[in-house]
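Design review, sub-item: ligand-bound model
Attendees: FS, YL, KQ
YL presented the inputs for the magnesium ion complex:
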Amino acid sequence: MDTFNYMFDRKIPYNELPKLPPLKEFLDTEILLKWGLASRSLAELNKNVFRIPNPSMLVNTIALQEAQSSSAIENIFTTADELYKAISDTVNEETANPATKEVLFYREALWSGYNKLMEQKFIDKSTIVSIFQKIKQTNQGFRSPQSQVIIKRGNSDFRSGETVYTPPRGAGIIDEKMDNLLEFMSDQNGLDPLLKMTIAHYQFEAIHPFIDGNGRTGRILNLLYLIEQNLLSHPVLYLSKYIIENKDDYYHLLSGVTQRQDWKSWVLFMLNAVDETSKHTNTKIDEILSQMDATFEYVKPKLKWYSLELNQALFSQPYVKQSLIGKMTNAKSRTTVTNYMSKLVEYGVLSTKVDGREVYFVNNDLIRILG
Ligand SMILES: Nc1ncnc2c1ncn2[C@@H]1O[C@H](COP(=O)(O)OP(=O)(O)OP(=O)(O)O)[C@@H](O)[C@H]1O
Ligand SMILES: [Mg+2]
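KQ shared the predicted structure:
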């Protein structure tokens, strides 16, 4: 069935990008074995998420790590410290530095896509556009027919450097290819959704429907698709870390599909990303849960106001505000809260961190685990 003979030129808009499903038969034993492993790890993760008392607590931290890695792919550098402050609401979004903002926008995009999916139960064009709009903080939609978009080696924003790919260009072409992609994703065509995610991700990046932000939008779309297809309950699969750590392969394999229809290497790479990432996240969940238990057992006999809920709250974000403790303990006065805080610091649950005029309370155990 290998009938696709187009001579690919990376400097010419790839309007010949074939529609899905892939023309070439590529499923073989090696892929099926990897698919089995990845599916199993993913199912394990999905089960593990429900062991967390309040899943959204971990989702937030993991979503932030995902956001951090995903944005780092574009060399937007931001420290874990800045980020942790940001999710703890101790940083004002308006005054955050540009790198932190970028990450917050990614997280906002992830959550808004997730909420939209929960409401309407399916992914459509508007879901994808709204993810992009949140990421880039814009009202634009798909790029215009005449837009000049090229992908350079390594980093798309690096102006000098070799062109590795030129996405399709021209009136109606993006809509047409996106319609085909969405149809493929929602079709009950017998292919497993996890396999379809890997195929769809290539296609999305190859269409490159937006001026910028296609990588980030595509990675959020992966997560939402697994949720839509009931393979994942919460957006906790932290694929961007794997992708950034293997960025050269990632770029190379995307090109491999375009140039040689090498779906097999690409699909294996993505399945491996799912397998490794699920295992990694499972380990983190186990570590967080057992540290939570250990902390609770250690502190509870010493402080009678230390509740299970407070313990959970302290493990929902690495940076804690004093007001949260006040709320969780129903403390009547500021003095009482201050007193509680100093006890938590004394027993090593939290430590204080002074930054300029601000004081933060930090859960070092959680930071170590999230590392
Ligand atoms: N040869 C290629 N064919 C198709 N897509 C590619 C190719 N090489 C890279 N890409 C995709 O293009 C993305 C970069 O595009 P763009 O700059 O629009 O996205 P971004 O979100 O701003 O950047 P990043 O992914 O670097 O965070 C990469 O993440 C990758 O998914
Ligand atoms: Mg970019």
